[in-house]
Amino acid sequence: MQSLRFTMRGEIGERPHIRYSALASLQDDRREKSSSFSGLSTAAHEDLRYRFELPEDVPWKSIALAVVLLAFGCLFLVISHFIYTQHMEGDSSQAYGFLVLGILLFLPGFYETRIAYYSWRGYKGYSYSRIPAY
């Protein structure tokens, strides 16, 4: 008797107010791929949400920004070093401030400049599309 109740619960469900939709199956996918809509092939029905095309142009503004960030980052790191070693006048807290600013400017500038250089040289795996365009 208990197995009968369990079977009835499994078939009817404990929540009769919830409607369940049919799950997609492998057969449904095959049927959609094999059928054609009004005689057109399935290639014409490509989902455009997943299409990705790489831009062909060079992002000059982004590369210029990366070079400026790299230059100022290097400059601030050198100033931080000179203040810390007392080749320039200043407090050690100023040296730490220039050090933090130098690191924050140097890292993204170096990263994007390196990608731009490797893209320009034609290294495998590097392209201008990896640099954000502004």
From TrEMBL:
Topology versus the membrane: Multi-pass membrane protein
Keyword Membrane included in the entry's annotation: yes
Location within or outside the cell: Membrane
Species of provenance: Physcomitrium patens
Pfam families documented for this protein: TMEM_230_134
Identification of the protein by name: Uncharacterized protein
GO cellular component terms given for this protein: membrane
Family: Belongs to the TMEM134/TMEM230 family.
Transmembrane segments: 63-83, 95-111
Keywords: Membrane, Transmembrane, Transmembrane helix
Superkingdom of this protein's organism: Eukaryota
Record's keyword annotation contains Transmembrane: yes
